[in-house]
Amino acid sequence: MKTRRVLVAAALSLALGGACAQTPPAQQDPIAAQMARLRSLPDAEWVGAVGKLAREIQQLPASPRKTSLIGSLGNLVTEGDAGRETLQVVASTMAEALRGAPNSPLAAALAQLVRYEHLDIELDLPGYRAATAKLEAEDRRRESADFTLSDLSGKSWSLRDLRGKVVLVNFWATWCPPCRKEMPDMEALYRRFGPRGLMVLAISDEDTAKVQPFIAAQKYTYPVLLDAGRKVNELFGVQGIPKTFVYNREGKLAAQAIDRRTERQFLEMLKLAGLE
C-alpha cells in the first residue's frame, strides 16, 4: 500500500511530465532539499521549518515547479501541529495553483486539507467540487461503519459493541514513519483516559509476523487489530496512513484526522467526543 503522500506525488509527477527538470530555478532547489529533511526534525524545529517553507513557496512565481513543491508540502504539512496560519498559507497556495491548472491532482489533496483541517478556501472548480463531494460521501459511510476484527492475541473486537466508550480508530503500518511517531502519544492517552472510557483500536493491514514483534518491542498495550484483507481499510476509504477516527459514546463520528497527530491534537479530537 502506498501512503497518500506517495500517491499524490506520483500523480503530480505524471501530470507535470518533464517540466520540473526543464525549469529548476536555483532558488527552488534548496526548498526541495529542506522538505526532504523535514521528517528528521524534532517537533519544535519542524513547526518553524514548515512555516518557513510554506511562505517561501507562496512567494515563488507561478510555474509547474511551484505546483509540484506546494503539492509535496501539502502532503507533509499535516505530519504535525503546523498551526492554522501555516496550514492556511499552504491551502491558499494550492488553490492558487489549481486556478492556473484546474485539472491538477492537487484538487483531491486540497479538498482533504480544507475539510479535515477546517480551513477557509473558496474555489469553484469542477475537479475540486468532485473531490469534496467524494469526501462527503465517505464521511456518511463512516458515520454508520461497523467492523469486527481480531487482535494479535486472537480476541475479536467490534466497533458496535464498544458503544458507551469513546473509541479512537487508527490506521497505521510498521513501515510508516508518521504512524510510528504518533504511537507513543496514543499509548499515553490510552493509559490516561482508558479508565475513563477511552478505547484505542489500531488497525494494520500487515501480517502478524511484521506487526507482532514491532508491538512487543515498543510495549504498546492498546488493542492492535489485523486487517490483512483490507476490508476495513476499504470500508473507511483509507488510501493513506496514518488516519484516525474518533467516535463518541453514542457511536457517532466526532472527529477525524488525515495524518499524524500530536498529543495536543489528539486531545482536541477526544474533547470533541466528550472526553477531556
Layout of secondary structure:
Layout: H1 4-16, H2 19-22, H3 29-36, H4 43-58, H5 64-74, H6 84-100, H7 106-117, H8 126-143, E1 148-150, E2 156-158, E3 166-172, H9 177-193, E4 198-204, H10 208-218, E5 224-226, H11 231-235, E6 243-247, E7 253-257, H12 263-272
Parallel strand pairs: 3-4, 4-5
Antiparallel strand pairs: 1-2, 3-6, 6-7
Helix pairs in contact: 1-5, 4-5, 4-6, 5-6, 6-7, 7-8
Report what the structure shows.
The protein is α/β, with parallel strands linked by helices and 276 residues long. The chain has helices at 4-16, 19-22, 29-36, 43-58, 64-74, 84-100, 106-117, 126-143, 177-193, 208-218, 231-235, 263-272, and strands at residues 148-150, 156-158, 166-172, 198-204, 224-226, 243-247, 253-257. It has a five-stranded mixed sheet. Strands 1-2 form a two-stranded antiparallel sheet. The radius of gyration is 19 Å and the shape is globular.
What keyword list fits this structure?
2 domains; Glutaredoxin; alpha/beta; 5-stranded mixed β-sheet; 276 residues
The spatial strand order of the largest sheet comes to 5-4-3-6-7
> What overall form do the CA principal axes indicate?
globular
Strand/helix succession: HHHHHHHHEEEHEHEHEEH
| Biggest beta-sheet profile | 5 strands, mixed
- Assess the beta-strand content as a share of residues: 5-15%
SS element count, helices: 12
Give the N-terminus to C-terminus distance in angstroms: 34 Å
Number of domains: 2
How large, in whole angstroms, is the Cα Rg? Answer: 19 Å
**Helix/strand/pairing class, anyone?**
alpha/beta
Share of helical residues? 40-55%
- Name the average pLDDT: 90
Total strand count, please? 7
